[in-house]
Design a protein that fits this description.
The protein is mainly α. Helices cover 76% and strands 2% of the residues. It has one domain. The protein is globular, with a radius of gyration of 21 Å.
Length: 336
């Protein structure tokens, strides 16, 4: 990536941090008091993400190194791109910021088309791991809390199962045949835009096809495909420790299974409202709904969970932004 673009990412990250600090949901005195009550649970919540990002980085490293190029991304630099990429995703609407950053950093070493296919693949794998977590949680809830399954919830369970099946079929087609060209083709039929879109399509078709070939290439390597999905899925499960520690700090008695269900439901609501920067309010609303369904205490959960997660996000955004200027010249090396 050119130094100018990297500096722009850095400035954007710093500006986002300032905005977050200025719009924090509690005043300074309340923040100090609440953090004092958190004790060692807050470092534990922040520390969980050292492990979560490690599994994310392993998945990303496998995908990048499975591409059709002669460069190798080591784990240290995969971890840097993972943390920095998620930092920019947290601070942009729709979470779009992390993808372009990773593409531009990798593109300087393996070309933009291959870098884009790697990032698209990782984004798809990240989404697929969420779907796997939601599916696991739905089955576990139906088994462990059968007495809470009303006809309405069984109906939702059936609709969810059908939706998951359809999404998995769609993902299989995307992995097998690529994604970018097929996403662009509907734009060719929009009135007033179709002629301009066709010119763009015809001009960039070779590059888009190269990206799709890179996406489809991973489908021909089952070991790399399933190993990267496994690490992403493990990252989601480990992430449940965040809610486990938060709820324990509030005196809520729960099992790790409960924490997995809380994470799955709150993340489902947050992703349904993905257009909100940092999913403001969405996760907390989902959290309150699931803890009530599980019969857990809800006193103060929304406020304290918001505090914990915002502080954790702020810490990791600061770390991710600070890593933007680190280790870029030796990001990748020739495969031995």
């Amino acid at each position: 990536m050119k130094p100018l673009y990297r500096n722009l990412f850095l400035l954007f990250g710093l500006a986002s941090i300032v905005v977050m600090l200025c719009t924090f949901e509690v005043d300074y005195q309340q923040l100090v008091e609440n953090l004092g009550r958190a004790g060692l649970y807050l470092p534990a919540v922040i520390g969980v993400w050292v492990i979560v990002y490690a599994f994310n980085a392993w998945a990303f490293q496998i995908i990048v190194n499975s591409g059709q190029h002669a460069k190798h991304l080591n784990f240290k630099h995969a971890y840097k791109l993972t943390v920095s990429g998620f930092a920019f995703s947290y601070t942009t609407p729709f979470g779009f910021g992390g993808g372009p950053y990773r593409v531009m950093e990798l593109g300087a070493h393996i070309g933009l088309a291959r870098a884009t296919s790697s990032v698209v693949l990782y984004s798809m794998m990240h989404i697929l791991s969420h779907i796997c977590l939601w599916s696991t949680a739905a089955v576990l809830f139906a088994i462990a809390y059968t007495e809470k399954m009303s006809p309405f919830l069984w109906g939702l369970f059936g609709l969810f199962s059908l939706a998951v099946l359809l999404v998995l079929v769609l993902f299989r087609l995307c992995y097998k045949k690529g994604l970018v060209v097929r996403l662009f083709q509907p734009l060719l039929h929009i009135p007033l835009l179709k002629h301009r879109m066709r010119r763009i399509y015809e001009k960039n078709l070779p590059a888009m096809q190269q990206i799709d070939d890179g996406v489809a290439y991973l489908h021909s390597q089952p070991r790399a495909f399933f190993l990267s999905l496994l690490w992403e899925y493990v990252a989601r499960v480990v992430n449940a420790l965040e809610y486990y520690f938060i709820l324990l700090s509030l005196g809520v008695s729960l099992s790790f299974l409960d924490a997995v269900l809380v994470l799955a439901f709150s993340s489902l609501i947050g992703n349904l409202l993905f257009f909100l920067p940092m999913q403001l309010g969405a996760r907390e609303g989902g959290l309150l709904m699931i803890v009530r369904i599980l019969g857990l205490s809800t006193s103060g959960i929304g406020i304290f969970t918001s505090l914990y997660t915002r502080v954790r996000e702020l810490v990791w955004i600061c770390i991710g932004v600070s890593l933007v200027k680190v280790g870029n010249n030796k990001l990748m090396k020739e495969k031995s």
